[in-house]
Specification:
Elements lengths: L1 H7 L3 H7 L3 H25 L6 H16 L12 H11 L3 H27 L9 H22 L4 H12 L10
Length: 178
C-alpha cells in the first residue's frame, strides 16, 4: 500500500478515504480498464461489417496497443498491457470481478456475431461456421495477443493481421486435389 500511495501522489488519508485497501484498488483498476477496453472495441465492431476478419483483428489489436500506451503513466513509457494479465489473474480470486469480466467478454462476443453473419452472407466466412464459435476465436486471438505481447514483448499487430489473412485466403479449387 505504501508504494501505491506514493505513486498516487495523494496522502495516506486521501487514499483510504476512497479505498479500504489494496483489494478495492485492484478491483477498481480491473473493472475500470475492462470498461475502457470495451469502449475501444465497441466502435471498431460497429464499423467492422465493411471489412474482413483480418482487418477487424488488426483494428482490435491496434486498439489494445493504443489503449495500453495511453492514460496515466503514458508519458513515462508505462505500458498498461502487462497490467491486464495481472488483472485477469486477480479476477480468478475475486468472484465479483470475475463475473464483471466474464460479462464484458461475453458482450464482446455477442457484438461480433452480427458482423460474422454479414461476412457469411458475403462469402468471407464459411456459411457452415457457427458465428459464436468464430466470435470466440476472435476473442481468443485478442486475449492471446495481449498475453503474448506482455510476456514476450514481440507480438505485432500487422503480423497477426497478415497471418490471419493468409490463413483465411481462399485456395484455388485444384489445391484440394493434391
Amino acid at each position: 500500500m505504501e508504494m501505491i500511495i506514493a505513486r498516487s501522489g495523494l496522502s495516506t488519508g486521501a487514499v483510504y478515504r476512497y479505498f479500504k485497501g489494496k483489494d478495492e484498488i485492484l478491483e477498481a483498476a480491473v473493472i475500470g480498464a475492462a470498461s475502457d477496453i470495451g469502449a475501444v472495441a465497441t466502435p471498431i465492431l460497429a464499423r467492422a461489417a465493411s471489412g474482413s476478419p483480418s482487418r477487424l483483428v488488426e483494428k482490435l489489436l491496434a486498439g489494445w496497443v493504443d489503449y495500453s500506451r495511453s492514460g496515466v503513466g503514458a508519458a513515462a513509457g508505462i505500458d498498461r498491457m502487462p497490467a491486464a494479465v495481472h488483472g485477469w489473474s486477480y479476477a480468478q480470486t475475486d468472484p465479483e470481478v470475475k463475473a464483471i469480466l466474464q460479462a464484458g467478454l461475453r458482450a464482446f462476443r455477442e457484438q461480433c456475431v452480427p458482423v460474422i453473419k454479414r461476412w457469411q452472407d458475403e462469402g468471407m466466412v464459411a456459411a457452415t461456421a457457427e458465428p459464436d464459435a468464430v466470435a470466440q476465436l476472435i476473442l481468443s486471438i485478442s486475449l492471446g495477443f495481449v498475453a503474448q505481447r506482455s510476456l514476450t514483448g514481440d507480438a505485432e499487430v500487422q503480423a497477426h493481421a497478415d497471418a490471419l489473412a493468409a490463413l483465411t485466403r481462399p485456395r484455388p479449387a485444384d489445391a484440394d486435389q493434391r
